[in-house]
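Q: Got a minute? One more chain.
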Amino acid sequence: MNAPTPTPSLATALPGELRRSLAATLGERFSQSAAVCQHHGRDESPFAVMPPQAVVFAESIDDIVATAQLCNRHRVPLIAFGTGSSLEGHVLAPEGGICLDLARMNRVLRLDTDDLSASVQAGVTRKQLNAEVRDRGLFFPVDPGADATLGGMAATRASGTNAVRYGTMRDQVLGMKVVMADGQVVLTGRRARKSAAGYDLTRLFIGSEGTLGIIAELTLRLYPLPEASAVAICNFDSVKAAVRTTIETIQYGIAIARCELLDTACVRAVNAYSRLGLRESPLLMFEFHGSESSVSEQTQAVQQIARENGGQDFTWAITPEERNRLWTARHHAYFAALQLRPGCRSLTTDVCVPISRLADCVGLTEADLAEAPFPHTIVGHVGDGNFHVQMLIDADDARELELAEQMNRRLVARALAMDGTCTGEHGIGMHKIDFLVEELGPEAIELMRSIKRGFDPNQILNPGKLLRP
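A: Always. Here it is, folded:
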Protein backbone atom coordinates (compact mmCIF):
# COMPACT_ATOMS: atom_id res chain seq x y z
CA MET A 1 0.00 0.00 0.00
CA ASN A 2 1.58 3.26 -1.11
CA ALA A 3 0.76 6.72 0.19
CA PRO A 4 -1.85 8.20 -2.17
CA THR A 5 -1.07 11.23 -4.28
CA PRO A 6 -3.00 14.32 -3.15
CA THR A 7 -5.80 15.51 -5.38
CA PRO A 8 -5.05 18.85 -7.12
CA SER A 9 -6.51 21.90 -5.38
CA LEU A 10 -10.22 22.44 -5.96
CA ALA A 11 -10.15 25.86 -4.32
CA THR A 12 -12.14 27.54 -7.07
CA ALA A 13 -14.79 24.83 -7.36
CA LEU A 14 -16.99 25.51 -4.30
CA PRO A 15 -20.53 26.20 -5.49
CA GLY A 16 -21.18 29.93 -5.33
CA GLU A 17 -24.50 29.50 -3.51
CA LEU A 18 -22.79 27.37 -0.82
CA ARG A 19 -20.00 29.89 -0.43
CA ARG A 20 -22.41 32.81 -0.09
CA SER A 21 -24.69 30.94 2.31
CA LEU A 22 -21.83 29.94 4.61
CA ALA A 23 -20.42 33.47 4.59
CA ALA A 24 -23.85 34.96 5.36
CA THR A 25 -24.60 32.44 8.14
CA LEU A 26 -21.20 32.33 9.82
CA GLY A 27 -19.54 35.66 9.08
CA GLU A 28 -15.88 35.69 10.18
CA ARG A 29 -16.19 32.03 11.25
CA PHE A 30 -16.03 31.11 7.54
CA SER A 31 -12.64 31.46 5.83
CA GLN A 32 -11.18 30.73 2.41
CA SER A 33 -7.77 32.17 3.28
CA ALA A 34 -5.04 30.17 1.54
CA ALA A 35 -2.95 30.12 4.74
CA VAL A 36 -5.87 28.88 6.84
CA CYS A 37 -6.73 26.18 4.31
CA GLN A 38 -3.08 25.06 4.08
CA HIS A 39 -2.88 24.79 7.87
CA HIS A 40 -5.98 22.59 7.95
CA GLY A 41 -4.68 20.40 5.13
CA ARG A 42 -1.83 18.87 7.09
CA ASP A 43 -1.43 16.54 10.06
CA GLU A 44 1.37 14.37 11.44
CA SER A 45 0.97 11.68 8.76
CA PRO A 46 3.47 11.07 5.92
CA PHE A 47 1.10 12.56 3.34
CA ALA A 48 1.64 15.80 1.48
CA VAL A 49 -0.59 18.78 2.28
CA MET A 50 -4.19 18.28 1.08
CA PRO A 51 -6.03 21.52 1.87
CA PRO A 52 -9.79 21.98 2.03
CA GLN A 53 -11.44 24.69 -0.06
CA ALA A 54 -12.68 26.54 3.02
CA VAL A 55 -12.67 26.31 6.81
CA VAL A 56 -15.55 26.82 9.23
CA PHE A 57 -14.67 27.66 12.84
CA ALA A 58 -17.66 26.26 14.72
CA GLU A 59 -18.56 27.84 18.06
CA SER A 60 -21.83 25.99 18.73
CA ILE A 61 -23.92 23.01 17.68
CA ASP A 62 -25.97 25.44 15.58
CA ASP A 63 -22.84 26.24 13.54
CA ILE A 64 -22.25 22.53 12.92
CA VAL A 65 -25.90 21.96 11.97
CA ALA A 66 -25.95 24.86 9.52
CA THR A 67 -22.69 23.78 7.90
CA ALA A 68 -23.78 20.14 7.60
CA GLN A 69 -27.13 21.07 6.07
CA LEU A 70 -25.52 23.28 3.45
CA CYS A 71 -22.75 20.79 2.60
CA ASN A 72 -25.28 17.97 2.32
CA ARG A 73 -27.53 20.03 0.06
CA HIS A 74 -24.63 20.78 -2.29
CA ARG A 75 -22.95 17.37 -1.81
CA VAL A 76 -19.67 18.94 -0.73
CA PRO A 77 -17.27 17.01 1.56
CA LEU A 78 -17.28 17.95 5.27
CA ILE A 79 -14.26 17.07 7.42
CA ALA A 80 -14.16 17.49 11.20
CA PHE A 81 -10.87 18.89 12.57
CA GLY A 82 -9.60 19.02 16.16
CA THR A 83 -5.90 19.71 16.67
CA GLY A 84 -4.53 18.05 13.52
CA SER A 85 -2.49 15.47 15.46
CA SER A 86 -3.59 12.48 13.36
CA LEU A 87 -0.87 10.09 12.22
CA GLU A 88 -2.86 8.36 9.44
CA GLY A 89 -4.31 11.24 7.39
CA HIS A 90 -7.70 11.46 9.11
CA VAL A 91 -8.21 15.21 8.66
CA LEU A 92 -6.81 15.75 5.17
CA ALA A 93 -9.03 16.83 2.27
CA PRO A 94 -8.18 14.64 -0.75
CA GLU A 95 -11.42 15.72 -2.44
CA GLY A 96 -11.44 19.31 -1.21
CA GLY A 97 -14.56 20.48 0.61
CA ILE A 98 -15.15 22.20 3.94
CA CYS A 99 -13.01 21.66 7.02
CA LEU A 100 -15.02 22.03 10.25
CA ASP A 101 -12.63 23.23 12.97
CA LEU A 102 -14.12 22.43 16.40
CA ALA A 103 -11.34 23.91 18.56
CA ARG A 104 -13.48 26.91 19.59
CA MET A 105 -16.09 24.57 21.07
CA ASN A 106 -13.99 24.27 24.20
CA ARG A 107 -16.38 24.64 27.15
CA VAL A 108 -16.76 22.19 30.01
CA LEU A 109 -20.55 22.13 30.23
CA ARG A 110 -21.10 20.17 33.44
CA LEU A 111 -19.05 18.53 36.20
CA ASP A 112 -20.72 15.93 38.41
CA THR A 113 -18.30 15.03 41.17
CA ASP A 114 -20.85 12.78 42.89
CA ASP A 115 -21.50 10.81 39.70
CA LEU A 116 -17.85 10.99 38.51
CA SER A 117 -18.73 12.40 35.10
CA ALA A 118 -18.20 15.48 32.96
CA SER A 119 -20.03 16.82 29.92
CA VAL A 120 -17.86 18.76 27.47
CA GLN A 121 -17.91 20.27 24.03
CA ALA A 122 -15.91 18.38 21.41
CA GLY A 123 -13.08 20.93 21.29
CA VAL A 124 -12.08 20.54 24.94
CA THR A 125 -8.63 18.91 25.16
CA ARG A 126 -7.60 16.18 27.56
CA LYS A 127 -5.20 18.51 29.42
CA GLN A 128 -7.88 21.17 29.73
CA LEU A 129 -10.34 18.70 31.25
CA ASN A 130 -7.76 17.40 33.73
CA ALA A 131 -6.89 20.95 34.78
CA GLU A 132 -10.60 21.56 35.47
CA VAL A 133 -11.14 18.45 37.61
CA ARG A 134 -7.81 18.06 39.42
CA ASP A 135 -8.78 20.32 42.34
CA ARG A 136 -11.83 18.12 42.88
CA GLY A 137 -9.64 15.06 43.35
CA LEU A 138 -10.54 13.59 39.95
CA PHE A 139 -8.85 12.85 36.64
CA PHE A 140 -9.59 11.68 33.11
CA PRO A 141 -7.26 8.79 32.23
CA VAL A 142 -7.03 8.61 28.43
CA ASP A 143 -3.76 10.27 27.42
CA PRO A 144 -2.51 9.96 23.83
CA GLY A 145 0.83 11.65 23.17
CA ALA A 146 -0.75 14.80 21.73
CA ASP A 147 -3.00 17.17 23.67
CA ALA A 148 -5.83 16.14 21.38
CA THR A 149 -9.45 17.26 21.53
CA LEU A 150 -11.83 14.89 23.26
CA GLY A 151 -14.10 14.82 20.21
CA GLY A 152 -11.19 13.76 18.03
CA MET A 153 -10.11 11.20 20.61
CA ALA A 154 -13.58 9.65 20.56
CA ALA A 155 -13.71 9.71 16.76
CA THR A 156 -10.45 7.75 16.54
CA ARG A 157 -11.03 5.57 19.61
CA ALA A 158 -7.85 6.91 21.20
CA SER A 159 -6.02 5.36 24.13
CA GLY A 160 -2.60 6.04 25.64
CA THR A 161 -0.32 5.11 28.49
CA ASN A 162 -3.14 4.43 31.00
CA ALA A 163 -5.08 2.03 28.78
CA VAL A 164 -3.79 -1.12 30.47
CA ARG A 165 -5.56 -0.09 33.70
CA TYR A 166 -8.40 2.21 32.65
CA GLY A 167 -9.18 1.27 29.04
CA THR A 168 -9.57 3.41 25.91
CA MET A 169 -12.06 6.07 24.82
CA ARG A 170 -14.52 3.28 24.08
CA ASP A 171 -14.70 2.64 27.83
CA GLN A 172 -14.98 6.28 28.93
CA VAL A 173 -17.83 7.78 26.87
CA LEU A 174 -21.29 7.52 28.44
CA GLY A 175 -23.12 9.42 25.71
CA MET A 176 -22.72 12.02 22.97
CA LYS A 177 -24.55 14.59 20.90
CA VAL A 178 -23.77 13.93 17.25
CA VAL A 179 -24.70 16.03 14.23
CA MET A 180 -25.61 13.85 11.29
CA ALA A 181 -24.82 14.56 7.63
CA ASP A 182 -28.25 16.15 7.09
CA GLY A 183 -27.96 18.33 10.20
CA GLN A 184 -30.07 16.24 12.58
CA VAL A 185 -28.80 16.19 16.18
CA VAL A 186 -28.77 12.71 17.76
CA LEU A 187 -28.37 11.93 21.47
CA THR A 188 -26.66 8.54 21.88
CA GLY A 189 -26.81 8.11 25.65
CA ARG A 190 -27.27 9.73 29.07
CA ARG A 191 -25.22 9.93 32.29
CA ALA A 192 -26.18 6.50 33.65
CA ARG A 193 -23.18 4.18 34.00
CA LYS A 194 -24.86 1.46 31.97
CA SER A 195 -27.83 1.06 29.68
CA ALA A 196 -29.57 -1.74 27.77
CA ALA A 197 -31.71 0.68 25.75
CA GLY A 198 -31.53 -0.06 22.03
CA TYR A 199 -28.54 -0.20 19.72
CA ASP A 200 -25.26 1.02 21.23
CA LEU A 201 -25.02 4.13 19.07
CA THR A 202 -22.35 5.66 21.30
CA ARG A 203 -19.84 2.97 20.44
CA LEU A 204 -20.85 2.97 16.81
CA PHE A 205 -19.69 6.57 16.53
CA ILE A 206 -16.55 5.97 18.62
CA GLY A 207 -13.84 5.01 16.15
CA SER A 208 -15.90 6.05 13.11
CA GLU A 209 -13.32 8.74 12.27
CA GLY A 210 -15.88 11.39 11.37
CA THR A 211 -17.40 9.28 8.59
CA LEU A 212 -20.82 8.74 10.23
CA GLY A 213 -21.45 12.00 12.09
CA ILE A 214 -19.81 15.02 13.72
CA ILE A 215 -19.32 14.58 17.48
CA ALA A 216 -20.38 17.88 19.12
CA GLU A 217 -20.62 17.05 22.85
CA LEU A 218 -19.54 14.15 25.05
CA THR A 219 -20.32 12.91 28.55
CA LEU A 220 -17.27 11.17 30.01
CA ARG A 221 -16.36 9.05 33.01
CA LEU A 222 -14.00 10.53 35.59
CA TYR A 223 -11.94 8.70 38.21
CA PRO A 224 -10.75 9.57 41.72
CA LEU A 225 -7.08 10.43 41.93
CA PRO A 226 -5.35 7.37 43.45
CA GLU A 227 -4.54 7.39 47.14
CA ALA A 228 -0.95 6.48 46.32
CA SER A 229 1.09 6.20 43.15
CA ALA A 230 4.66 5.25 42.31
CA VAL A 231 6.69 5.61 39.11
CA ALA A 232 9.73 3.48 38.37
CA ILE A 233 12.11 2.89 35.46
CA CYS A 234 13.78 -0.43 34.83
CA ASN A 235 16.58 -0.88 32.27
CA PHE A 236 17.24 -4.12 30.38
CA ASP A 237 19.96 -5.45 28.12
CA SER A 238 17.44 -6.15 25.35
CA VAL A 239 13.96 -5.25 24.18
CA LYS A 240 13.09 -8.94 24.33
CA ALA A 241 13.82 -9.10 28.07
CA ALA A 242 11.75 -5.98 28.69
CA VAL A 243 8.80 -7.37 26.74
CA ARG A 244 9.04 -10.72 28.52
CA THR A 245 8.81 -8.86 31.83
CA THR A 246 5.67 -7.09 30.60
CA ILE A 247 4.03 -10.35 29.51
CA GLU A 248 4.67 -12.05 32.85
CA THR A 249 3.45 -9.01 34.79
CA ILE A 250 0.13 -9.06 32.92
CA GLN A 251 -0.23 -12.84 33.10
CA TYR A 252 0.29 -12.77 36.87
CA GLY A 253 -2.62 -10.34 37.17
CA ILE A 254 -0.68 -7.43 38.65
CA ALA A 255 -2.84 -4.32 38.23
CA ILE A 256 -0.26 -1.86 36.89
CA ALA A 257 -1.55 1.53 35.75
CA ARG A 258 1.08 2.09 33.06
CA CYS A 259 3.75 -0.01 31.38
CA GLU A 260 5.68 1.73 28.59
CA LEU A 261 8.52 0.38 26.45
CA LEU A 262 11.23 2.58 24.93
CA ASP A 263 14.00 1.07 22.83
CA THR A 264 17.57 2.41 22.98
CA ALA A 265 17.13 4.85 20.09
CA CYS A 266 14.01 6.29 21.68
CA VAL A 267 15.71 6.68 25.07
CA ARG A 268 18.58 8.49 23.37
CA ALA A 269 16.13 10.84 21.63
CA VAL A 270 14.14 11.51 24.81
CA ASN A 271 17.31 12.27 26.76
CA ALA A 272 18.38 14.88 24.22
CA TYR A 273 14.95 16.43 23.69
CA SER A 274 13.76 16.53 27.32
CA ARG A 275 17.21 16.88 28.94
CA LEU A 276 16.98 13.69 30.95
CA GLY A 277 19.78 11.43 32.05
CA LEU A 278 18.24 8.00 31.53
CA ARG A 279 20.54 5.05 30.91
CA GLU A 280 20.53 4.48 27.16
CA SER A 281 19.33 0.92 26.90
CA PRO A 282 15.85 -0.58 26.44
CA LEU A 283 13.65 0.31 29.40
CA LEU A 284 10.20 -0.01 30.87
CA MET A 285 8.43 2.86 32.60
CA PHE A 286 5.96 1.65 35.22
CA GLU A 287 3.29 3.45 37.20
CA PHE A 288 1.39 1.85 40.07
CA HIS A 289 -1.91 3.13 41.57
CA GLY A 290 -3.79 2.12 44.69
CA SER A 291 -3.46 2.21 48.45
CA GLU A 292 -0.03 2.54 50.05
CA SER A 293 0.01 -1.20 50.82
CA SER A 294 -1.21 -2.33 47.39
CA VAL A 295 1.31 -0.12 45.59
CA SER A 296 4.09 -1.57 47.72
CA GLU A 297 2.96 -5.12 46.92
CA GLN A 298 2.72 -4.38 43.20
CA THR A 299 6.16 -2.80 42.99
CA GLN A 300 7.83 -5.66 44.86
CA ALA A 301 6.19 -8.25 42.63
CA VAL A 302 7.13 -6.48 39.37
CA GLN A 303 10.69 -5.81 40.56
CA GLN A 304 11.12 -9.55 41.18
CA ILE A 305 9.79 -10.41 37.70
CA ALA A 306 12.14 -7.86 36.15
CA ARG A 307 15.17 -9.23 38.00
CA GLU A 308 14.39 -12.74 36.78
CA ASN A 309 14.51 -11.34 33.22
CA GLY A 310 17.81 -9.54 33.74
CA GLY A 311 16.34 -6.15 34.61
CA GLN A 312 18.24 -3.74 36.80
CA ASP A 313 16.93 -2.40 40.10
CA PHE A 314 14.16 0.15 39.77
CA THR A 315 15.03 3.82 39.54
CA TRP A 316 12.27 5.76 41.29
CA ALA A 317 10.68 9.11 40.48
CA ILE A 318 9.88 10.26 44.00
CA THR A 319 8.31 13.71 43.76
CA PRO A 320 5.26 14.71 41.70
CA GLU A 321 7.53 17.01 39.70
CA GLU A 322 9.86 14.13 38.80
CA ARG A 323 6.93 11.92 37.82
CA ASN A 324 5.37 14.62 35.66
CA ARG A 325 8.71 15.30 33.98
CA LEU A 326 9.14 11.63 33.08
CA TRP A 327 5.63 11.21 31.67
CA THR A 328 5.83 14.48 29.79
CA ALA A 329 9.05 13.23 28.21
CA ARG A 330 7.31 9.98 27.27
CA HIS A 331 4.42 11.86 25.70
CA HIS A 332 6.91 13.91 23.69
CA ALA A 333 8.75 10.84 22.40
CA TYR A 334 7.35 11.36 18.88
CA PHE A 335 8.74 14.89 18.67
CA ALA A 336 11.98 13.80 20.33
CA ALA A 337 12.52 11.15 17.66
CA LEU A 338 12.09 13.74 14.90
CA GLN A 339 15.29 15.40 16.16
CA LEU A 340 17.27 12.25 15.41
CA ARG A 341 17.13 13.36 11.78
CA PRO A 342 16.38 17.09 11.45
CA GLY A 343 14.23 17.91 8.45
CA CYS A 344 12.98 14.33 8.16
CA ARG A 345 9.48 13.09 7.47
CA SER A 346 8.02 10.61 9.94
CA LEU A 347 6.15 7.49 8.93
CA THR A 348 4.65 6.31 12.20
CA THR A 349 2.64 3.13 12.49
CA ASP A 350 1.26 0.89 15.21
CA VAL A 351 -0.10 -2.60 15.69
CA CYS A 352 -1.56 -4.51 18.63
CA VAL A 353 -1.27 -8.26 19.24
CA PRO A 354 -2.41 -10.68 21.94
CA ILE A 355 -0.07 -10.26 24.90
CA SER A 356 1.22 -13.83 24.52
CA ARG A 357 2.57 -12.96 21.02
CA LEU A 358 4.03 -9.57 21.90
CA ALA A 359 7.64 -10.74 22.35
CA ASP A 360 7.56 -12.56 18.99
CA CYS A 361 6.08 -9.56 17.15
CA VAL A 362 8.46 -7.02 18.67
CA GLY A 363 11.48 -9.29 18.14
CA LEU A 364 10.74 -9.91 14.47
CA THR A 365 10.07 -6.20 13.96
CA GLU A 366 13.42 -5.31 15.55
CA ALA A 367 15.20 -7.69 13.19
CA ASP A 368 13.39 -6.25 10.17
CA LEU A 369 14.19 -2.65 11.15
CA ALA A 370 17.86 -3.51 11.60
CA GLU A 371 18.12 -3.54 7.79
CA ALA A 372 16.69 -0.03 7.42
CA PRO A 373 19.02 2.73 6.13
CA PHE A 374 17.16 5.39 8.14
CA PRO A 375 16.78 6.05 11.91
CA HIS A 376 13.82 4.45 13.66
CA THR A 377 12.40 3.91 17.14
CA ILE A 378 10.13 1.41 18.86
CA VAL A 379 7.93 2.62 21.71
CA GLY A 380 4.72 1.23 23.03
CA HIS A 381 1.95 0.73 25.54
CA VAL A 382 3.13 -2.84 25.83
CA GLY A 383 0.93 -3.62 28.83
CA ASP A 384 -1.93 -4.15 26.38
CA GLY A 385 0.09 -5.52 23.46
CA ASN A 386 0.27 -2.24 21.50
CA PHE A 387 3.50 -0.79 20.15
CA HIS A 388 4.55 1.89 17.67
CA VAL A 389 7.31 2.12 15.08
CA GLN A 390 8.53 5.52 13.94
CA MET A 391 10.59 5.60 10.75
CA LEU A 392 12.43 8.85 9.98
CA ILE A 393 12.82 9.19 6.24
CA ASP A 394 14.13 11.77 3.78
CA ALA A 395 11.10 13.69 2.57
CA ASP A 396 12.55 13.94 -0.93
CA ASP A 397 13.64 10.31 -1.28
CA ALA A 398 10.91 8.20 -2.89
CA ARG A 399 13.01 5.08 -2.35
CA GLU A 400 13.13 5.59 1.41
CA LEU A 401 9.38 6.20 1.53
CA GLU A 402 8.68 3.00 -0.37
CA LEU A 403 11.08 1.03 1.84
CA ALA A 404 9.34 2.36 4.95
CA GLU A 405 5.95 1.42 3.47
CA GLN A 406 7.25 -2.10 2.77
CA MET A 407 8.35 -2.43 6.39
CA ASN A 408 4.96 -1.14 7.50
CA ARG A 409 3.23 -3.76 5.34
CA ARG A 410 5.40 -6.52 6.81
CA LEU A 411 4.68 -5.30 10.34
CA VAL A 412 0.93 -5.35 9.77
CA ALA A 413 1.08 -8.77 8.09
CA ARG A 414 3.06 -10.04 11.09
CA ALA A 415 0.47 -8.71 13.53
CA LEU A 416 -2.48 -10.11 11.57
CA ALA A 417 -0.80 -13.52 11.36
CA MET A 418 -0.66 -13.44 15.18
CA ASP A 419 -4.41 -12.66 15.39
CA GLY A 420 -3.69 -9.02 16.11
CA THR A 421 -4.88 -5.78 14.52
CA CYS A 422 -3.40 -3.37 11.99
CA THR A 423 -3.82 -0.50 14.47
CA GLY A 424 -4.18 -0.43 18.23
CA GLU A 425 -4.90 3.28 18.49
CA HIS A 426 -3.87 5.37 15.47
CA GLY A 427 -6.94 4.38 13.47
CA ILE A 428 -7.37 3.70 9.75
CA GLY A 429 -7.57 7.15 8.16
CA MET A 430 -6.25 7.09 4.59
CA HIS A 431 -3.14 5.08 5.31
CA LYS A 432 -4.53 1.72 6.48
CA ILE A 433 -7.69 1.29 4.41
CA ASP A 434 -6.40 -1.81 2.61
CA PHE A 435 -5.18 -3.34 5.86
CA LEU A 436 -8.71 -3.11 7.29
CA VAL A 437 -9.97 -5.30 4.45
CA GLU A 438 -7.20 -7.84 5.15
CA GLU A 439 -8.01 -7.82 8.85
CA LEU A 440 -11.81 -8.19 8.77
CA GLY A 441 -12.64 -9.47 5.29
CA PRO A 442 -14.96 -8.17 2.54
CA GLU A 443 -18.17 -9.16 4.35
CA ALA A 444 -17.42 -6.92 7.34
CA ILE A 445 -16.35 -4.10 5.02
CA GLU A 446 -19.62 -4.32 3.07
CA LEU A 447 -21.56 -4.18 6.35
CA MET A 448 -19.63 -1.02 7.26
CA ARG A 449 -20.45 0.42 3.83
CA SER A 450 -24.16 -0.23 4.37
CA ILE A 451 -24.01 1.57 7.73
CA LYS A 452 -22.20 4.47 6.06
CA ARG A 453 -24.83 4.66 3.32
CA GLY A 454 -27.62 4.71 5.91
CA PHE A 455 -26.04 7.46 7.99
CA ASP A 456 -24.54 9.51 5.15
CA PRO A 457 -26.31 8.71 1.85
CA ASN A 458 -24.61 11.55 -0.03
CA GLN A 459 -21.18 10.40 1.18
CA ILE A 460 -20.08 13.86 2.34
CA LEU A 461 -18.59 13.02 5.75
CA ASN A 462 -14.80 12.69 5.65
CA PRO A 463 -14.67 10.88 2.29
CA GLY A 464 -11.68 8.71 1.51
CA LYS A 465 -11.10 7.72 5.15
CA LEU A 466 -11.64 4.29 6.75
CA LEU A 467 -13.48 2.97 3.65
CA ARG A 468 -12.65 3.51 0.02
CA PRO A 469 -15.25 5.57 -1.89
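A: The longest strand covers residues 214-221.
Q: Perfect, thanks.
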